[in-house]
Amino acid sequence: MRRRLVGGLTRSCVASFALVLAVAPAGAQQADSVRQLSLDDALRIAEGQSEDIAIAAAGVTRAHGQEIKARSQYLPQISGSLSYTRTLRSIFQNFGARTDSAAGGGPPACSSFHPDPASPLADQVGVLEAALGCAPSSGNLLSDFSSVGFGSENQYSLGLSLSQNLFSGGRVKAQVRQAGAARETADIGLTSTRAQVILQVTQAYYDAALGDRLVAIAEATLAQADTTLVQTRLGRNVGNQPEFDLLRAQVTRDNQVPVVIQRRSARDLAYMRLKQALNLPLEEQVSLSTSLGDTGVAASSRLAALISATPDTAAARRAPVREAEQTVVADRAALTVAKSQRIPTLTLSSQFGRVAYPNGGFPDWSAFRSNWTVTGAIQVPLFTGGGIHGDEMVAEANLREAQARQRQTRQLTALDTRDAVSQLEAAEAQFAANQGTVDQAAKAYQIAQVRYREGISTQTELSDSRIALQQAQANRAQAARDLQVARVRFALLHDLPISAQGVASAGTNASAAQQAAPALTVSPSTTVPGQQAVSGVQTGAAAQTNPPGVTP
After folding, report:
1. How far, in Å, CA of 496 to CA of 517, rounded?
2. Alpha carbon of 118 to those of 111, 131, 192, 369, 407: distances in Å?
3. What would the pLDDT profile of 202-218 be if each residue is shown by its tens digit?
4. pLDDT higher than 80, residue 293
């Protein structure tokens, strides 16, 4: 009987080996098109392809530009101008124009008046009458207004203007503070966004690695169930096993098939989420080269450097608190700007211009005339219809709201920091508790197999041992994933925002905020350490009673 059993197992192993050899060439051909992706590669791709980081970087550039614009009000504003004007018709175009007596019967034009004292009196009177009756000449500046622009067809103007704020009641200084606070907030936002991307990609990568591990565990359990079914069928054929054991082995094997399908579906979904986080085509084949690992040491050099550094866990230095502080600074500056509208402003301006009115063509530089003015102006708001008071009310309300949010943010940040520390401690404790459990469960399963083959054990004992081995392997993989993510989150805690759930719940009541704050939600596709990461996998005390998708 034992010889027939061994012979049947040998034939099954040979058939499986032949199937592997047949599939190996096709798998080798597909492996050439599979992209090998390490965790360091994923982080590098995410930082270079992330739209969130690009948006935050654009916000930093915009904030820097606004700060430069606000500081420019301290400096003189100088501008130059060059213009040309062509007059088509003017009310002055016939004033002093030269006419001909034959054409219009008007007086003739005379170039100059030269009386001769030695001539007879009658001749002097005639010359005088002729001078009074002729039109003004172009050379007589007292009577020819075309040289100063009246009726001139061409006008060239060169201008230079200067303006300087002498006193603005503190408005410029407050605007500079407001722009500086916005720039600081943008810098914090960029750092926070980069930390969020790192945590999100790390979670997505380890979720995909956990999916691979759970698929491998489910497939190994299915193979063990197939082996048990073969052994039971052989025992039934030789009359050593009852029909009940054969039916039980068949049901156990068949129940494991949906678990494998479920694990593969969850793994594929985890891979799609990872590709989405990296902006990779969903149809591209990806293979993870960084394994989940059975140690608490980060497999990524980038993450190992982050974890080895001592993080600043002080709640007052967290990114959300610093952003809230800068918001208060900006709103306080906005209140100063609103109040400065009641204070008179003093400005100094100067205009310098050179103007020419040639009869045709381009003028010579000597034909230009200068015009230079200096103006000092004081503006005092006398009546605005309540506009300034309304601006002050809005600014005061914004400041009070910012101060209240600052206090609220400090409370939630302190709670979120303690939650991160507690989750890291729990992940480390769970990982340490699972050390050696897999080896012990594997040894117990081997003994159960020998006992079952020798007929001194029941199939129930073998099934329980197999379930315990699968549970131990799943718990170990889950603990490794939770520990890696918890350590990365703790290392990035200084720059990470508060839980979105905690901030949303803070508007209702404090107790709800305390319940929602510990959960860190980076994206809908990621989970936090200690929570259920893959469907059917449980952690903690519940995992000891309900194996991950295994039907005994």
Report:
1. 13
2. 21, 18, 102, 41, 105
3. 999 999 999 999 999 99
4. no
Residues 81/161, Cβ–Cβ less than 8 Å: yes
Chain mean position to CA 145:
66
Number of folded domains that form the chain: 1
Residue 432 lies in a domain: yes
Q: Which of 493, 479, 548 is nearest to 522 (CA)?
A: 493
Buried b / exposed e across 390-418, counting CB within 10 Å, b at 16+? ebbeebeebbeebeebbebbbbbbbbbbe
Indicate the SS3 state at residue 44.
helix
Question: What CATH number has the domain bearing residue 215?
Answer: 1.20.1600.10
Q: How far apart are CA 339 and CA 319, in angstroms?
A: 31
Q: How deeply is 368 buried, as exposed, middle or buried, from its count of CB atoms within 10 A (0-12, 13-18, 19+)?
A: middle
Q: Confirm whether pTM is higher than 0.90.
A: no
Quote the CA–CA distance of 335 and 495 in Å, as a whole number.
Answer: 29
DSSP string, 171-185: HHHHHHHHHHHHHHH
Separation CA 173–CA 326 (nearest Å) = 16
What range does the domain containing 502 cover?
Answer: 171-277+317-332+389-543
Flag whether pLDDT at 262 surpasses 90. yes
Length of the chain: 552
